[in-house]
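Write out structure tokens for Beta-mannosidase A.
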Amino acid sequence: MHPWKQLLLGAIPSGLPTALGQNVIDLNGDGWTVSSSALNITVPGRVPSQAHLDLFAAGVIDDPYHGLNDFNFRWIANNNWTYTSKPIQGLSNDSKTSWLVFNGLDTFTTIQFCGEEIATTDNQFRQYTFDISDALKNCKGSPTVSINFGSCPKIANEIAADPNSQSKSNDSSRPRKKSNSPPEWPAGIQGVFELPNREYIRKEQSDFGWDWGPAFSPVGPWQNVYLVQSETERSAYVVNTGFDIYRKGQINHIAPDQSQPWIVNASIDFIGSLPEQPSLSIEIKDIQSGDILKSESLDNVAVVGQAVSGQMTVDADAPRLWWPTGMGSQPLYNVTVTIRSDGQDVATVTKRTAFRTIFLNQSNITEAQIAQGIAPGANWHFEVNGREFYAKGSNIIPPDAFWPRVTEAKMKRLFDAVVAGNQNMLRVWSSSIYLPDFMYDLADERGVLLWSEFQFSDALYPTDQPFLDNVAAEVVYNVRRVNHHPSLALWAGGNEIESLELPTAKKKAPEHYEFLVGDYEHLFISLILPLVYENTRSISYMPSSTNNGYLKVDLSAPVPMVERYDNGTDQEGYYYGDTDYYNYDSSVAFDFEGYPVGRFANEFGYHSMPSLQTWQQAVDEEDLHFNSSTIVLRNHHYPASGPDTHNYKNASMGMAEMTLAVERYYPIPNKDDSVANFSAWCHATQLFQADMYKSEIQFYRRGSGMPERQLGSLYWQLEDIWQAPTWAGIEYDGRWKVLHYTARDIYQPIIVSPFWNSSTGDLSVYVTSDLWETAHGNVTFKWTDLSGKAIPDNAGTPETKSFSVGALNTTCVYNTNISKITLPSVEDAVLIVQLTAEGHLPNKEHEAATTFTHRNQFTPAYPKDLALKDPQLQLSRDAESSTFTVEAKSAVSLYTWLDYPAGVVGYFEDNSFMLAPGEKRSLTFFVQKDETGGKWVDGVTVRSLWDQTTS
Ligand SMILES: *[C@@H]1O[C@H](CO)[C@@H](O)[C@H](O)[C@H]1NC(C)=O
Ligand SMILES: *[C@@H]1O[C@H](CO)[C@@H](O)[C@H](O)[C@H]1NC(C)=O
Ligand SMILES: *[C@@H]1O[C@H](CO)[C@@H](O)[C@H](O)[C@H]1NC(C)=O
Ligand SMILES: *[C@@H]1O[C@H](CO)[C@@H](O)[C@H](O)[C@H]1NC(C)=O
Ligand SMILES: *[C@@H]1O[C@H](CO)[C@@H](O)[C@H](O)[C@H]1NC(C)=O
């Protein structure tokens, strides 16, 4: 049984393009073999797949995710694996030309057709098409395709060891490395995880390990394979499209003029040949109503190489606009383009798209903005359809080490969790893959913006010509493939290169710094930027995530974007770029004065353990201890030195950071049952993680109304690749950690947040709103002790304050110092702040106002020091409505946590919340997947902070 079988239906691209005189043979599915001659192994294979998955399905190996198999399975990565098809049936008798079409090969291959070598490949991210007409003509009998996949760690090491690989640039105008500079990079610059030299190869960079994942370095035909034959001289098989919808005159780095009409530019990549003067017709259909928005012939039709393109105009206000979730609806349109010649349809292709502009504004702060109280420097925020908004979300990493088993059903659950979590943007981090269309489709439907990156991260990259040519092909293919998705928000060249790699190079290899900056600009600015601009006018580009913006853009200059780097950033009171901030010294975790002040926060976080239920999927019962060797060695922060199963040094540092953080702030679990104690420890690390992110998110959101005009927070990281301690808010199988619930709460449109400076005692309470107009309301303040009794005279605090909070703004509703609050005991007190406000959601300004509520609490002591009392929680279930009711009978319940058993995936409508004594909350559990036949309901439990230490 193939566990990833369900995927295959979803993975086939939206309908094989229909065309005249073509024979398309689908080579996907069963009927392949995978073999290693060196190891004398042959097992049944399938496509799309990877060798690990087929070996697992055949029972040759255990679950790759079990125990320490990450380290044990290096032998798979160190060998070649050959995929061979069964004899191909259904070939046409009168074909003129035949091709093999590979939508993705991971990574180094030698391909044979009917025993004849036809090609080699070396890039996981490219689509390849090969003319096999001659090989087919020479073939006796039914042909087979065989693809020999090389060992990526071995090939990467060979390239790195080749003295010419770095400096073999043929371009004599480029500075060469000094003769004393080794072919390797200057020491200490490249981010190395489990396997070295990933930067030399165009493969998912985290396949060689990362600080949250394993290093399997899988290989295989990871995307669909077809054999295409044309039976006429003139035929076109569509292999890709570049559909671009933008406002007339729009250019990537300049704010689009919303009054301009839309330009629809449709470009189609094909194999085959077209007549010189084909015509293109287009139909744009509103998917919801079925109404045709436009149906006509395209203008300016041109065939250039293997692409045909044309253009049309749509009136400025004719289409309905697509908005991110929380800001409006997501109307989608089918754009169907048909290539016609001599009155016949040669080929037709449909893409689902939408009308919106999305723009990354990095322009200088204007005098008018300064007059509004915005600090000088440069903007760094997104604008959708011309509107500023607050970006709320997280960073998405590969959801599995093996993409062919990532099912559409699982990704639906993930994207539903994103929307349920009040997130409107994900950063598609740059050492994964270019996401498949079905994931952009899910984001298009749900209004989730995807800041997308090219696959370069935490390293410096080669710039020899073959490498650049390879990258160029990858960039053009993916920019065109993805561009029609309205969820696409941005292209970034890479991750942490400008903000981390170059500064490290400056420090560690000052003599090479200038050369390395030149290399960086050569790849990310001179090469990639023009390729992006040539293929899309609708999407902004920046060379690397986390930057200080640019000084100027001159598309005719050899380096068309002049980066600001550190120019000006030492000027007090000036703000430029976005921020990327980690601090594993948990003693300052809640010290918001230490958080970075910038225009946007694109990464921040701290790791935590997954739940007991998730650990049980991957490790044996005897390993369920916080510091068992298996658990520790699955912690890859700091990077695993694997496959050494005796080196605990790096992993232990990460375990110690979690341990210390818990011990500093939370009651220390002390349960008799060792598994229960382990579970309580895992939970405690999640409480710390969630509280710390909450503290940072509140700080960044408040910044929307501060001089820095902060307009985004995307935390690290949305979800897990496997079962391990990581920064994730959602565990491998979809279970929410405390973090995802807490982020959901604090990403609501209007929030009330206490800010406590524990050194000075200053306490202020802010209301922050990301609505687009002013909201009005009040906040109530209620001090009680932990048994729930009101503190006399409300400890001198006003019981209510009314406020109005402006659009994308914040307002302070209360400001005091703990010393002025009359508390009998700081360890036995909690302040409950409750907000009620009236306002309009974006694009609902003409509808009735919405009532917003938000509750938060503050204790003037850390949880471990609180005089907790047993809240005597009671849980009941209403069988009819599948809701669970929790009641705190006798004391304040902090971090009230409903837990559910393994076998079901879903989420409660709220979790990790406070309950006052006598207070009841009824909560629905949203089931996303149930393998228990409904029995999970009997396994739901409730606990709170009080229970962490009880036996
Ligand atoms: C290869 O494996 C087959 C089947 O397991 C076995 O019969 C054969 O002897 C093996 N050959 C070598 C060279 O080990
Ligand atoms: C392994 O695969 C690579 C890439 O196809 C190829 O260059 C190499 O010759 C192969 N080696 C063997 C022993 O098959
Ligand atoms: C939009 O196009 C898709 C793919 O071709 C098709 O399945 C769907 O039915 C179309 N929708 C409408 C409303 O025509
Ligand atoms: C933005 O301001 C910088 C000074 O920080 C200046 O050098 C640059 O030319 C300005 N850019 C534009 C496009 O005006
Ligand atoms: C300032 O910007 C220029 C042009 O991008 C760059 O060459 C220089 O290194 C920058 N200076 C600093 C201190 O970053």
